[in-house]
């Protein structure tokens, strides 16, 4: 695998049925990690079935191959920093997710860089000709409201590095 892409689901704060198809790991509001339908290995080489349905976790348009999909459940109804909707991400959820990504980086021998651990938003910015362009996950972290949109990727990588080296 070559990278981890971090998302929010845009749904409620527990996984919904379709979320299982789209991500390898889902994290609910309590920080519980839930496995998706497809194993990480399904995204090594992405294939479709005879009805052209994905046999992999389709989470990052234009970049599913080699990408581990991790998603925090929530943010349905998000409008902006002043109105994050009824399902804002929680602190325990974010921290559990950062810890999980640190573990995945160890497991898959990934460095923690902007090219190897990124938000879906960052992937879309770096790949403007894909369907990931314009994705808003993650432009705001409710538990860390002072972190600016442009700094969120680096903030997350710093957190992941802390878990990577301390634990
Ligand atoms: Zn996404």
Describe the structure.
With 167 residues, the protein is of the alpha/beta class. The chain has a single domain, classed as Lysozyme-like (3-Layer(aba) Sandwich). Helix content is 28%, strand content 13%. It contains four helices and five strands; from the N terminus they run βαβββαβαα. It has a five-stranded mixed β-sheet with strand order 3-2-4-1-5. The chain is globular. The model has no long low-confidence stretch (mean pLDDT 97). The structure holds zinc ion. The site of zinc ion has 4 residues, from loops.
| Name given to the CATH architecture | 3-Layer(aba) Sandwich
The beta-strand count equals 5
Major sheet: order of its strands?
A: 3-2-4-1-5
Number of helices: 4
Structural class: alpha/beta
Overall pLDDT, averaged? 97
What is the H/E order? Answer: EHEEEHEHH
What percentage of the residues does DSSP assign to strands (E)?
5-15%
Indicate the CATH class.
Alpha Beta
Bound molecules: zinc ion
| Spans of at least 5 consecutive residues with low confidence | none
CATH topology: Lysozyme-like
How many structural units, i.e. domains? 1
Compile the SSE list and pairings.
Blueprint: E1 3-8, H1 17-22, E2 25-27, E3 33-35, E4 67-72, H2 91-108, E5 117-119, H3 120-126, H4 152-166
Parallel strand pairs: 1-4, 1-5, 2-4
Antiparallel strand pairs: 2-3
Helix pairs in contact: 2-4
The chain binds zinc ion.
Residues 7, 120, 135, 137 line the site of zinc ion.
Give a quick set of tags describing it.
5 strands, alpha/beta, 4 helices, 28% helix, binds zinc ion, 13% strand, 5-stranded mixed sheet, 167 residues, Lysozyme-like
């Amino acid at each position: 695998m070559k990278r981890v892409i971090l998302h929010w689901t845009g749904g409620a704060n527990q996984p919904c049925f379709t979320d299982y198809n789209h991500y390898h790991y889902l994290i609910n509001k309590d920080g519980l990690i839930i496995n998706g339908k497809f194993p990480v290995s399904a995204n090594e080489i992405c294939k479709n079935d005879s009805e052209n349905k994905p046999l992999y976790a389709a989470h990052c348009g234009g970049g599913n191959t080699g990408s581990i999909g991790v998603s925090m459940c929530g943010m349905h109804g998000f409008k902006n920093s002043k109105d994050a909707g009824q399902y804002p991400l929680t602190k325990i959820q974010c921290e559990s997710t950062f810890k999980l990504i640190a573990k995945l980086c160890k497991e898959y021998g990934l460095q923690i860089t902007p090219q190897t651990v990124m938000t879906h938003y960052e992937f879309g910015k770096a790949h403007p000709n894909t369907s990931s362009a314009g994705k808003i996950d993650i432009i705001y972290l409710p538990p860390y409201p002072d972190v600016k949109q442009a700094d969120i990727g680096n903030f997350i990588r710093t957190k992941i590095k802390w878990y990577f080296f301390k634990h």
